[in-house]
Amino acid sequence: MHYEGMGLVIMILRAFKGGVHPPESKNTANSETLQMGIPSKIIIPMVQHIGAPCKPLVKKGDTVKVGQVIGDTESYVSAPIHSSVSGTVTSVDTRIITSNQAIMCIEIKPDGLQEVAEDIKPPVIQSREDFLKAVRASGLTGLGGAGFPAHVKLNPPKDTNVDTLIINAAECEPYITSDYRECIENTQNIIDGIKAVLKWTGVPRAIIGIEDNKPEAVRKLTEAVKDIPEITVQSVKTIYPQGAEKMLIRTLTGREVPPGKLPANVGCIVMNVTSVSLLASYLKTGMPLIKKRVTVDGDSVKNPANVEVLIGTPIKEVFDFCGGFATDPGKIIMGGPMMGVAFYSLDLPVIKNTNAILAFSDKLAGLSDETPCIRCGRCVEACPVNLLPFELDRLVRAKKFEEAQQNYILDCIECGSCSYTCPAKRLITQSIRIGKDALRRMAK
Amino acid sequence: MDKQLLVSSSPHIRSDITTRRLMLDVIIAIMPASFAGVWFFGTKAAILIAVTVISSVLFEYIIRKVFKRNNTVSDLSAAVTGLLLALNLPPALPVWMAVVGSFFAIVVVKQLFGGIGQNFVNPALAARAMLLVSYGSKMTSWSEPFTDVVSSATPLAILKTGGEMPGLWDMFLGKIGGSLGEVSSLALIIGGIYLFARRVISWHIPVIYCGTVFILAWILGAGGSFTLYPVYHILGGGLLIGAIYMATDYTTSPMTRKGMVIYAVGCGLLTVLFRLYTNMPEGVSYAILLMNVAVPLIDRYTKPRRFGGGANA
User: Fold this and answer.
1) Nearest-10 crossing angle of helices B77-87, B123-134
2) Cβ–Cβ of B15/A430 closer than 8 Å?
3) A265 pLDDT exceeds 70?
4) Phi and psi for B224 in degrees, rounded to 5?
5) Which chain B residue has the Cα nearest residue A410?
6) What are phi and psi of A248, to 5 degrees?
7) Residues of A in contact with B21 (CB under 8 A)
8) Low-confidence residues of chain B, pLDDT below 70?
């Protein structure tokens, strides 16, 4: 890998092994982001991130204002949760969102006034500690989907030496274009965010990694950084899962994150492009994370679009905003089709790390029957972390979990490339998840 | 909303490759060689192919019923095995022997071990080896092309015993004695290109297997360093059909590229050793069968390196 000069776009060919190339289906790439108004109700779960759940700070009957902190916790790996509307709390109870666990949720009835909380003002930053406190206060968690609290990520362990900030604009999942629209519509804000992070963390350089199927965004970003030597834009090959943090680090720097370790252990911090843009907005206005651009697509949706949505909006209302359903949906996915989560109900909310909601008709949603593994090796070819998916599938089904661990099942990033490419339509990713879960339980 | 939503694990989309489609691609790829066989050897070849394929499919249907397992005929793998077996047989072989071969390939080697994906050697090659041992005389009675004359002259046999070799052009097109499907190098290569273009096989096994044979034949062969002796080894005998269609069988070849290289070199080495240092003029079938059996060992020692190179678990 070589630089031809600072701020220039360099073609980097795929530098991680494997991956797959599903149809990109970026149908909403050219749709300007629509603003959705205030929904009929807001549901805010107390877990929208990796880390400790927040405790609700309000109770039924309380009034809340926009930007007010309504959930927080003392734990380090966590981030506060704010109200996205002004209104009245109608309930605080547990609900099942996706996984089988009941999560505490605050439901709010908006009053339509959108009164802003009194303490909303741009933070005063004079030191690194101030900066990290501000990042935490913004409620920012990884907006690329992973939801890792940003203030923890930007405070890497003392024994690591971070020399590169990677800005993840890859957006490798089919359908999703929300990061792309951020690059097009909010280019300068992104750059401002990057500059702030570099300044207060002391990291010397930043690379914006973006897939080459987004030439317009590459052009705009390159233009915006042309006079900034510390920030470069690199266009990378469009291959899934290019946007997975370990893969992007490998592609842009050639370094591989060791199993069980952090990107910081190989000198990198990876932030999603929309995250860094939100950070810039927060530093300028003091308004925390309360809205999100969501790509709405799938063959059941009448008018696919990118929509800016208040966090906590029930997805049913977002779909209605996009014209409702042209055909009865067979499957609703939060996220992309490769790693997204299937929802059991339309009454569930958009949360911080929702970047897309997809509605598929029965035709696209159906599952094929599994047939026997023919040992074709496509899964091995596709796996970006050098695993033997067919073997892990076999071992898990035979309940040989320890042997699965010896075959590094815990290294799996659950990207789904193996299942995607399997001609026998085997549910390999599901098997691996079962195996990992079994090992977690056995470790307790 | 009344209708229930499907909730399943990601990924929620799949590529459109299926096992059946892969098998169909192999059938398509082997068509040129099949037509060449019928062209050179006439009706008897067509009948042999038809009987072998039909009996293979029937045996699979019947044995799955007997075992009370699901019917797998529609995945086309039995048809592929039947077709490949037929192409490995002498064109004048009595048809009932081919049926015995089908039985051995489908019922014994494949279904008794668990069906598709579970066979430990290539079923068609194992059947050929069994027939060679059981009916040696008829299995080595080769036909002259375009006639009903039966002789023992294949190019490799002539190479071993001496005599006038057919021209290289005839060997390339297929106007020689040999198994039904092995004679036309041209047809086999066309099919091989199709398989590569359709991404059914990778280049590693065919190219490295043939390359190894070429180099070893060149070094060890009788003809001296600068003759075309190694080319006779490539175009004659079952090397091309073996390297492109038999050694590349998914179930009996290694799972990683590194493993495939070792496997292909092993196939090439054994083929040349059998051809040059034993009584047999041909060595491909046994070479591939022996390497098939070594595949689990190869797989165990060619596991990919761990991403991020962590300490071993």
Assistant:
1) 40
2) no
3) yes
4) 90, 160
5) B313
6) -70, -35
7) 423
8) 1-2, 152, 222-228, 310-313
Distance CA A160, CA A252 (A): 19
Residue A337 CB neighbours (<10 A): 27
Hey, which residues does A296 pair with through a beta bridge? A305, A357
Residues of B in contact with A256 (CB under 8 A): 307-309
**B251 touching A, CB under 8 A?**
yes
Task: Tell whether B13 is covered by a domain.
Answer: no
H/E element, A105: strand A102-110
Confidence of residue A22 (pLDDT cuts 50, 70, 90): very high
Whether residues B12 and A331 touch (CB distance < 8 A) is answered with yes
B303–chain A Cβ distance below 8 A for any pair: yes
pLDDT of residue A406: 95
Please state, in angstroms and rounded to a whole number, the distance separating the CA atoms of residues A329 and B139: 60
Quick one: residue B212, left, alpha or beta (phi over 0 = left, psi -120 to 50 = alpha)? Answer: alpha
Average pLDDT, rounded, for chain A = 92
The predicted-structure confidence for A42-56, as pLDDT tens digits, reads as follows 999 999 988 899 999
The pTM of this model reads 0.92
Give bridge partners of residue A156 from the DSSP assignment.
none
Within 10 angstroms of residue B151's Cβ, the number of other Cβ atoms is 12
Q: What is the pLDDT of residues B55-64, one digit of tens each?
A: 999 999 999 9
CB contact under 8 A, B18 and A423: yes
Q: What is the count of structural domains for chain B?
A: 1
Residue B307 resides in a domain: no
ipTM of the complex: 0.91
Q: Per the CB < 8 Å rule, is A333 touching B7?
A: no
Give residue for tokens 């190219």.
B207
Q: Hey, are the CB atoms on B14 and A411 less than 8 Å from each other?
A: no
Nearest CB to A328 within list B3, B77, B306: B3
Asked whether the beta carbons of residue A388 and residue B1 sit closer than 8 angstroms, the reply is no
- Determine the distance in angstroms separating the CA of B201 from the nearest CA of chain A, rounded to an integer: 9
- pLDDT at position A10 is 40
Chain B residues near residue A432 by CB distance under 8 angstroms: none
Distance from CA of B254 to the nearest CA of A (A): 8
B3, B4, B8, B14: best to mutate for the A interface, most A CBs within 10 A? B14
Range of the domain at B86: 19-301
To probe the interface with B, which of A257, A364, A375 has the most B CB atoms within 10 Å?
A375
DSSP per-residue string spanning A276-326: HHHHHHHHHH---S-EEEEEEESTTBSS-EEEEEETT-BHHHHHHHTT-BS
B260 within a domain of the structure (yes/no): yes
Report the pLDDT value the prediction gives residue B311, as an integer from 0 to 100. 55
Phi and psi at residue A151, in whole multiples of 5°?
-70, -25
CA distances from A430 to A52, A155, A426, B292 (A): 25, 34, 9, 31
Chain B's closest residue to A382, CA to CA, is: B256
Residue B3 inside a domain? The answer is no
| B127 contacts B52 by C-beta, under 8 angstroms | no
Which residue of A lies nearest to B312 if distances are taken between CA atoms?
Answer: A406
CA–CA distances in Å: residue A200 to residues A11, A138, A160: 30, 16, 17
pLDDT band at A137 (very low <50, low <70, confident <90, very high): very high
CB-based contact, B13 to chain A, within 8 Å? yes
Average pLDDT, chain B: 91
Whether chain A has a CB inside 8 Å of the CB on B300: the answer is no
Nearest by CB to residue A260, choosing from B1, B11, B310, is B310
CATH of the domain at B31: 1.10.3430
Q: A104 in the Ramachandran plot: left (φ > 0), alpha (ψ -120 to 50) or beta?
A: beta
